[in-house]
């Protein structure tokens, strides 16, 4: 992320020369196509500077000036400026510049001569055709808004006669018309209106315009015209002078703010925003433009002076005595705060703005907040205090004190109100209007806003409130002197640090960090400020895990922040609605526990333990995870500190309370909706309790029952979790099962109960969990070695394809293989001591058989999960046994050359399979087995190692068919691997992706084309054909292999590769195999593939197989499926059309006419006689059906 940001950050406008060259092309003139390409390139360049548009400022004059000169030429001759003219591209270019840099900056570089006014306006009027690009009209409006500011009476510029409409009237009418536009012209027209009506010489047109707007708004104005009118009014009351606007306020504009049409647009955020904006403009007009003399003024804004010795001296000039009491300073300024009449309408204005702070849309609240700040800046102090009082009351709306905890309950408050109020407070503070004595009231609310998070269903709201609260803290840093904020520094600093590392949202973490950094720089009194901003910077907080686990840990080393960080995790983050945050909170507590282990034992664990039984699952889940991780962390600390170990052991009451959590948790929590999260947490807790070796104790039962040992409760929970269907729950349960077995031991009866669960076909999910659990047990403790052969045997059985559909569960088979792999790794060098050679061979055969698992369900080839797991298991097994064999005598070796050839053949087959993930897994395993060595001596004795090492390298791209298949086909020369590798290549030809099918089939055909037809010393084409026949035999009726095999055979015949074989017996065997596969088949795809093979056989010259192939194709002409009949007719037509002149006879020509002239999709009784004619015409004997033999 950091690299991306740096890469997109520019230091200067480095495309200036290219833009000038492209601009010259547009100015000189070009064709439409070149002009389109040029403007697109200009758009791409300017888009790059959207976030750093200020870099263009030094070049704007050269980027805008020449274009304006050229446009003035066009404006002088508007008739030559049609909709097809490339001159419109110049207007579009100017729009792109204004989009990037803003029209206010760009318009300064446009010409503003008096003589331009009428020509530009006439040009705009001529551009009213909708076929003209809208950018042309928009730029004309922007241009006119500058020209009309000329310091001359516009009536003197008007060339219209007395009988004609004046220029001013025409301009106003055009603007009114374009206020209805749906595009940017509306904004341009509003701006031009504002510039015109703000002129003193056109002041008499303002009141009629306002009356016109009220008429339109009350009439049938649509949403676009309404937005245009309100926008124009906002601009008028921004640019107009107060003397001109003041007479229009009471009787004309104020009634407009409360008109009924606003109710019609109550769901339109833009209209509401424009109303709020207009309200604040009107409020500002009521008040004289001045800065409140009673405001708080900080002495210096210089950062250097602020941090230096002069900072305090400068501020004392403003405030003396108690920094929270400004009465003395305010009274001294009271003489300057002269009495000013404030209209009663201002109360309505402020009421609208304060209600705008509650609006549901951010843009409305932000506009209202800015309006509150600007208006308050001009109010007398007494009225301003009233505004601030009401503003602070917004925080108190719908709050109540929880009677049980005596804490403020915010569950009923509005997030929109809090966000708007926070923005308003920030605006007031930034302007010095929130006086220091108000901070004691304000800061507690802002600290609550920093952690504002309201749960709503399965999510929460409040990120925008927290972001606004960070803005408030940022504004405090810039507004107040250090000694003013000093009483609140500790509170603000700790809360900002907590939010910057533990907030869920990245923008809030970064905003909090920015506020903290601003306070460190401006105030200079934040504890350990410089050190913390070096740790918690923009980039380090970008990654949530890094922020929680690393940055927080480093900051917690500063004593001022340790307790706030820990307390926030315990009281807030472990109860967060997002599961990922609760998990991170538990992991963060694990790291922090190492800093204050006694604090965690004495306070944190006793505080968290009761919440593990809470009825709210989120609270219970977070508390259990936190207790588990803290116990795990304390184990590491206890191992290093004997005193801490003794102190831990003395807390027997706490240990009993923690150990009994699985017994005391409500049973419903483990079975109801969402219980999988509780089971994950409780299994993690049991695992950690086993790791830390919590003493086993009896638990008293109710109703006088016998006490039950706490360990039995744990085992019951773990076993029930192993039988859940959620994989995550099973993973946690497996870890807990292994921890219990490692710490407290496991009996033979428990192991064999697990084996029975694996063998049971009724427990589909249980088989998955117990298969993984058995792999977690260590079999080298006590007398467990004798159990291992039975465990391996059961797991091998569970990994095989099951006959019953319900029992053939892919996850169960995969987990059984994973369990075997873990056992192999745990056994290590004692493999031969616990497993005999027969056991090894059974294990090896089982894993090899797993490589033939191609089970499918609605999810696809789920057998690939088993094959991938088996290959990884084979890697561990072969390398382990190979190393043991290398250090033992030859007669005790478990591995042989035959075994290795068989395994490598299976792996090579998987390395060319159709699934990328499987190929990549197989390739990785092959490279590891092939190249792993000890002391430069290879571990495994692999047949044809030289061939494999020649073509299989570590840098081969196994997932890329284009790179893989041209290499792997060469390994077909190695006889031990040929059949399996060829089978894999064939099956890939039936893949779903075009690139896989193309490369696998074409590479195989190219390789076979390069083989000699027959040879006794090297691989020949005939030998390859025999292997293809062998695939027919081995995979009979298995469409997964047979279908792509027939497709490849069709391509081999079509390309003439197999036609080089002269032995008729091979072709005949292929024909018989294909016909056998298609006998009584209803698989249309298989039948169509067979027709391609038969068609390919028609290329065999002087062969009986050719005749049989034509006979078979003619028989398909009356097949039950019309699709097959149509395909065969096309194949027969192709066959006849490519015959040589010597082979063409009257019969074949007539047959061609019959084939092309017959509708083969018609009813069978109609087309069968026609088909029968083709036998004689093609000189092919008609097959004679043998009569059925009566038994």
Automatic annotation (TrEMBL):
<feature type="domain" description="Tubulin-folding cofactor D C-terminal">
    <location>
        <begin position="902"/>
        <end position="1086"/>
    </location>
</feature>
<dbReference type="GO" id="GO:0007021">
    <property type="term" value="P:tubulin complex assembly"/>
</dbReference>
<keyword id="KW-0143">Chaperone</keyword>
<dbReference type="Pfam" id="PF12612">
    <property type="entry name" value="TFCD_C"/>
</dbReference>
<dbReference type="Pfam" id="PF23579">
    <property type="entry name" value="ARM_TBCD"/>
</dbReference>
<dbReference type="InterPro" id="IPR011989">
    <property type="entry name" value="ARM-like"/>
</dbReference>
<dbReference type="InterPro" id="IPR058033">
    <property type="entry name" value="ARM_TBCD_2nd"/>
</dbReference>
<feature type="region of interest" description="Disordered">
    <location>
        <begin position="305"/>
        <end position="337"/>
    </location>
</feature>
<feature type="repeat" description="HEAT">
    <location>
        <begin position="349"/>
        <end position="386"/>
    </location>
</feature>
<dbReference type="InterPro" id="IPR016024">
    <property type="entry name" value="ARM-type_fold"/>
</dbReference>
<dbReference type="Pfam" id="PF25767">
    <property type="entry name" value="ARM_TBCD_2nd"/>
</dbReference>
<dbReference type="InterPro" id="IPR021133">
    <property type="entry name" value="HEAT_type_2"/>
</dbReference>
<dbReference type="GO" id="GO:0000226">
    <property type="term" value="P:microtubule cytoskeleton organization"/>
</dbReference>
<dbReference type="GO" id="GO:0005096">
    <property type="term" value="F:GTPase activator activity"/>
</dbReference>
<dbReference type="InterPro" id="IPR022577">
    <property type="entry name" value="TBCD_C"/>
</dbReference>
<feature type="domain" description="Tubulin-folding cofactor D ARM repeats">
    <location>
        <begin position="270"/>
        <end position="530"/>
    </location>
</feature>
<dbReference type="GO" id="GO:0048487">
    <property type="term" value="F:beta-tubulin binding"/>
</dbReference>
<dbReference type="GO" id="GO:0007023">
    <property type="term" value="P:post-chaperonin tubulin folding pathway"/>
</dbReference>
<dbReference type="InterPro" id="IPR033162">
    <property type="entry name" value="TBCD"/>
</dbReference>
<protein>
    <submittedName>
        <fullName>Tubulin folding cofactor D C terminal-domain-containing protein</fullName>
    </submittedName>
</protein>
